[in-house]
Amino acid sequence: MSNSNVMTQTGSNQAPHYTVIVVGGGQAGLSISFYLKEAGIDHLVIEKHTVTHTWRSQRWDAFCLVTPNWQCALPGYPYRGDDPHGFMKKDEIIAYLDGFIEMVDAPVVDHTEVRRVRRQHDGSYVVSTSNVEFTADHVVVASGGYHTPIVPRMAERLPHGIVQLQSSHYRSPQSLPEGAVLVVGSGQSGAQIAEDLQIAGRKVYLAVGEAPRCARFYRGRDVVDWLADMGYYEMPVDQHPLREGVRDNTNHYVTGRDGGRDIDLRRFALEGMELYGRLDDLRDGVLYFAPNLTSNLESADDTYNRINASIDAFIDREGIDAPPGVPYEPVWKPEGERTSLDLAASGITSIIWCIGFTPDFSWIDAPVFNGRGYPAHVRGVTSQAGLYFIGLPWLHTWGSGRFSGIARDAAHVVDAIRAAIDVSRTASASLAA
Question: Distance between CA 321 and CA 31 in Å, rounded?
Fold first, then answer.
């Protein structure tokens, strides 16, 4: 549905009403629409930009999936290409999403920002947007959990001549000015962007955080394949050793680039990348780092070896014939902890902040959030009738915020909506009788 079509419905004083309004037109919102259409439930998807906008505008040029293509399993639209164990590049991901968009054919109003959601006394919701106001019996929040880029206040004190980008705005080495680049953060984005810059011949300084890492291939197979066979991706959050705490975990760094490989920061150092610990401060043109590079590298390697050891145990338990595996041994170690770096002397002309995002659900007026502003829910169903969430990390399983698990989550949320509609109809029929 286009904006013009929606606007024509507002000629009366009564706001357009839908049984369900879905906020967000990414893969999560479109997956909800898929099941709502299948159930014959009228609904509207409201998107601030255009559908699947994030994949098109917030990924760098060399971006590719870090999980194999076979895990792309959007509802009714699994990966059907000829490289299930490969890793789609950015243009291939967009083509895959375009096919999904066409197949779902969701009723969407785009370029419309939802500014407030509030519940009325009768239990319905008012959805106020930048264009018009709607009402709905149910609201599904599918806007994800990565809203506000994290940039430390010290960034305000950097010299004006230094280009600063958040990871979602990085595109390519060629888009940056000549000179060295400081990448802050070593999660999935930071590690891959640092590699992208180093491959292009740029001098790279990397402030290493506490992100874990994992192998790409181990004992003859992709680690993802092993973990799938081990049932890891089927594990619900309430059975994970960390329980809901797993939602705060940083993703393991690895890459699907060039067919897939490990990301080993120690090897980057051998090739000329300068590694430091966590960036803590900036004073008088000097950057200061925590003396934790060694511990961060060791912690990442421990996770790497621990995952591989769990695969070893699975292979032994199941009697699987597989090539031998050996623990990772460091190929480089810091000679000491360097805790300062002079900006001018280093030749740094660009800084890329890769330290994540914070959620912003301030526009939802509902008593369902914890002290950190994160919604409390069970598989996306909140304690407030008619309000649901979808597409969040570990909403139910590891794949909840990814292409692999969104179909199951969306089906569950729509089942909950259908059940609520049935209860409401039964209650109305009883009153009428």
Answer: 39
Asked if residues 263 and 191 have their Cβ atoms less than 8 Å apart, the reply is yes
Domain span including residue 47? 3-147+359-432
**Whose CA is closest to 190, among 356, 354, 357, 358?**
354
CA dist 42 to 18, 33, 116, 171, 246, Å? 6, 9, 21, 39, 35
Calpha distance 259→290 (Å, rounded): 35
Those residues whose C-beta lies under 8 Å from the C-beta of residue 295, and which sit 6 or more positions away, are none
Task: Please report the pLDDT score of residue 433 as a whole number.
Answer: 63
CB 91, CB 60: distance < 8 Å: no
Q: What is the pLDDT of residues 118-152, one digit of tens each?
A: 999 999 999 999 999 999 999 999 998 777 888 99
Count other Cβ atoms within 10 Å, centred on residue 91.
11
Burial call 207-222: b when 16+ CB within 10 Å, e when fewer: bbbebbbbbbbbbebb
Q: Please answer whether residues 332 and 293 qualify as being in contact, where contact means their C-beta atoms are separated by less than 8 angstroms.
A: no
Domain shared by 43 and 117, yes or no: yes
Low-confidence ranges of the chain (pLDDT < 50): 1-11
Per-position DSSP letters for 351-394, written without gaps between them:
EEE-S-EE---TTEESS-B-TTSPBP-BTTB-SSTTEEE-S-TT
Instruction: Supply the DSSP symbol for 81.
Output: S
Residue in this structure with the two tokens 């998807």, named with its chain if needed: 45
Query: What single-letter DSSP state applies at residue 396?
Result: S
- CATH of residue 20's domain is 3.50.50.60
Query: Where a domain ends, among 326, 353, 380?
Result: 353
Structure tokens at 100: 């999904």
How far is Cα 72 from Cα 251, in angstroms, rounded to an integer? 18
| Amino acid (1-letter code) at residue 279 | L
Q: Given the structure tokens 């060694």, which residue do they identify? A: 294
List CB contacts of 407: < 8 A, sequence separation 6 or more: 31, 73, 74, 75
Alpha-carbon torsion, ordered 303, 305, 307, 313, to 10 deg: -150
Q: Give 310-314 contacts, CB < 8 A, sequence gap 24+.
A: 310/230, 311/218, 311/219, 311/223, 311/226, 311/227, 311/230, 312/219, 314/226, 314/229, 314/230
